[in-house]
Amino acid sequence: MFHTDYPYFSSGSSVMREHFENTANKFLEQELIGSDPFIVELGSNDGIMLRTIAKAGVRHLGVEPSGGVAEHARAQGINVLTEFFEATTAAAVRAEYGPADVVYAANTMCHIPYVDSIFAGLDALLTPGGVFVFEDPYLGEIVERTSFDQIYDEHFYFFSATSVDAMARRFGFELVDVQRLTVHGGEVRYTLARAGARAATPAVAELLAEESVRGLHDRDCLARFAAEVGVVRTELIALLHKLKADGATVVGYGATAKSATVINYCGITPDQVRYVVDTTPAKQHRVTPGAHLPVRPAEAFAAPYPDYALLFAWNHAEEIMAKESEFRAGGGKWILYTPNVRVVD
Ligand code: SAM
Ligand code: TMP
């Protein structure tokens, strides 16, 4: 998956560009304050976060196995190692650059099955007082918003404070802070430090307690989630059938990895959703996995506008709806399916 042609470019969203600029500035203000600090980012992609660090002249290294996106970052003057992060890579980085004050990973830990090797690498790489900060889609939000499309082949883990707390302890670390994030449909940023190195903020105990009260890890809670997912499927299939029968045109917006789950689980065909538009050149003129919906450039959206647009990139809803305001002004309607199926006009 993570090779030269890996098609996901993080910088395609202005909201995400701002999010990562703020993240970098937070590290610069709060963590990278010693003499000659050093930050390593796993899955640095096209340099969306590290470009702010590089501009500030702070020592950094992206560890990014996907050659195409890594090259994009390098072209902006960002230092990137085209490798998978694991124990051996971490040892080599430590030998060449010395210890890191911060290791950061966004939307990357959820893709990596081999946490043992990751934590062995963190142990080798971090300074005694250093932190490992990572953010990923939050199980609590997935359940709350019935966003079952976060569950797809590339997503190996669905973290919660409870699971991260247990994972950290297993490897001699502690969960010392959590922060809720609104991006990508609701995430949590977890901060881990070596056991005993930092006091945990009250937010950690609060989120652990909230998850316990909700029964987030109980069978009943997940069974309710499964039932709600079934309702979304039934309603989305019924809506697409009706629109087809009415002769309305529907296209998909955003050939997201998430959409593969929705399209295949609901059995959506090119007959119902004619094509999917996406700004990513590497996805255009291909087809979606399984169902083979054609993927077209973003310009195809307006030529001519469909009656309905099924928003597969719902996590970027605000940004996309603002950008495509003419679609709605001309009578176009958005179809959303999380937390429930609805038409927005
Ligand atoms: N951090 C960016 C963001 O949040 O937009 C990119 C996230 S992208 C979904 C996941 C990235 O992790 C990809 O660029 C992929 O190449 C990278 N990746 C996958 N396995 C990795 C590993 N073992 N070490 C470092 N990066 C990895
Ligand atoms: P993501 O939900 O994993 O970030 O993927 C978003 C997908 O949607 C990605 O393929 C790019 C695409 N996209 C657009 O086509 N137009 C947009 O305005 C945005 C923000 C994303």
UniProtKB/TrEMBL annotation:
It comes from the Bacteria. Gene3D superfamilies: 6.10.250.3100, NAD(P)-binding Rossmann-like Domain, Vaccinia Virus protein VP39. InterPro entries: MeTrfase_14, SAM-dependent_MTases_sf. GO terms for molecular function: methyltransferase activity. Residues 183-339 form the C-methyltransferase domain. GO terms for biological process: methylation. Keywords: Methyltransferase, Transferase. It holds the Pfam family Methyltransf_23. PANTHER family: BLL5978 PROTEIN, TRANS-ACONITATE 2-METHYLTRANSFERASE-RELATED. This is Class I SAM-dependent methyltransferase. The lineage of its organism: Bacteria, Bacillati, Actinomycetota, Actinomycetes, Mycobacteriales.
